[in-house]
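Fold this sequence, please.
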Amino acid sequence: MAAQAKRAGQIIRGIREFVQRRAPHRKRCEIADLLETVQTLLNAEVKKSQVKLTVSDVSELPPIYADAVMLEQVIFNLMKNAIEAMADTPVSQRTLDVNVRREHDMLAVTIADRGTGINPEQMEQLFKPFYTTKGSGMGMGLNICRSIIEHHHGRLWVEANPQGGSCFNFTLPLSLESEAYEP
């Protein structure tokens, strides 16, 4: 519990600093470590929601140079949203697939759920500040996620999952360590 509280504090500090427009603290990160942290934080939610979580093998992927806390927050938010989107999905179909792969000089991540999906009108608005599809949402999570990914010179977008639900995708450049630090 203490470790999770400490991690939550780091995430909050990271978001506050990001909102204040500071440059990310880029350093060498292993995507496996980022995913492990997020899985630990979401473990209870996954069990409670009876979601079958699968994560692709990331052992052969190169490291990335990024702000780990910021990227963990993006992955956490996208996975938590996916879990919440499956609240009305029959338990046998509640699957959350996290696929991480290398595509040329980019790290590509897809977080696919089998939830209710997003209609085309909502897709147009989804990343705008204060737009939410949730009854209790503030409408800032996806906007902040997109800003974080773009700040890392990547791209974040959503597509319909052909099996039902949604696929949130983001890419990040794979770069040399010397290029990763901003002046």
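Helices lie at 2-19, 31-48, 68-85, 120-125, 141-151, 177-180. Residues 2-19 form the longest helix (18 residues).
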